[in-house]
Specification:
Number of domains: 1
Strand order of the largest sheet: 1-2
CATH topology: Four Helix Bundle (Hemerythrin (Met), subunit A)
CATH architecture: Up-down Bundle
Structural class: mainly alpha
Helix content: over 70%
Distance between the termini: 41 Å
Number of strands: 2
Radius of gyration: 17 Å
């Protein structure tokens, strides 16, 4: 059976896809905040499977499985969630923008899987980062979340995903630990201290804006490796 060839990193990757589906189900059920929390769970799983894949035996399908899971959790899930939220009031605009975001995300994943790696960085904004930007923005204080702000962010992220701008990879244990800490805070606050969720989400969103600007600011790669 196919299940016999799966390894530990593959199981974490499947968890990533599962969180993506739970995000879609939550958004469809009207629980938007939980949908974006599930996207953050998926992002943590995506980081973990890469970490484990570098240290544990891999299966022959691991790399392909990862891209399929990413397409669900960071392409389909945020696009569907936003349509469920805004589709009733702006159906055509939201449908077009959501589909465009999904198309750019899929193209980004296809390029990552097929292009020769000539630089140590990502070429174009990773789709995981794009989805987390959307999730963190939708989780901040409601009065700052505006429909046209969502549209502008989605279009910007779509452009950055298919661009050739270099985005640093998180490699060092300190950098990855800090990123995990930033991701976990909104998740914990959602379940334990809901009043603090907008605060932690705003902090995450502002940090992600710095990452989006890193090709322009030329932030030294060492800060992502240490």
């Amino acid at each position: 059976m196919l299940f016999k060839i799966l390894r530990v990193p593959d199981l974490v990757t499947l968890g990533n896809a599962l969180f993506g589906m739970m995000a879609i189900f939550s958004a469809f059920s009207g629980n938007a905040d939980l949908a974006f929390i599930f996207i953050l769970f998926a992002a943590i799983a995506d980081g973990m499977d890469g970490f484990l894949a570098r240290r544990l035996p891999n299966s022959v399908i691991g790399e392909y499985l990862d891209s399929l899971a990413d397409a669900i959790s960071f392409g389909v899930a945020p696009a569907a969630a936003l349509y469920f939220i805004y589709g009733y009031s702006h159906p055509y605009t939201m449908a077009i923008v959501s589909c465009f975001y999904l198309f750019c995300g899929i193209l980004r994943l296809a390029r990552f899987d097929t292009k020769q790696k000539t630089i140590p960085d990502f070429e174009g904004l990773p789709i995981t980062a794009s989805a987390v930007v959307i999730a963190s923005y939708l989780l901040i204080v409601d009065r700052y979340v505006q429909f046209y702000g969502v549209v502008a962010i989605m279009l910007l992220l779509s452009f950055l995903m298919v661009s050739e701008y270099p985005y640093p990879k998180l490699r060092g244990s300190k950098a990855m630990g800090f990123a995990a800490f930033v991701f976990v805070l909104p998740i914990i606050s959602y379940f334990v201290l809901p009043a603090y969720l907008p605060i932690f989400s705003t902090a995450m969103f502002l940090m992600l804006l710095l990452y989006l600007e890193s090709p322009i600011m030329r932030i030294p790669r060492k800060y992502y490796e240490e």
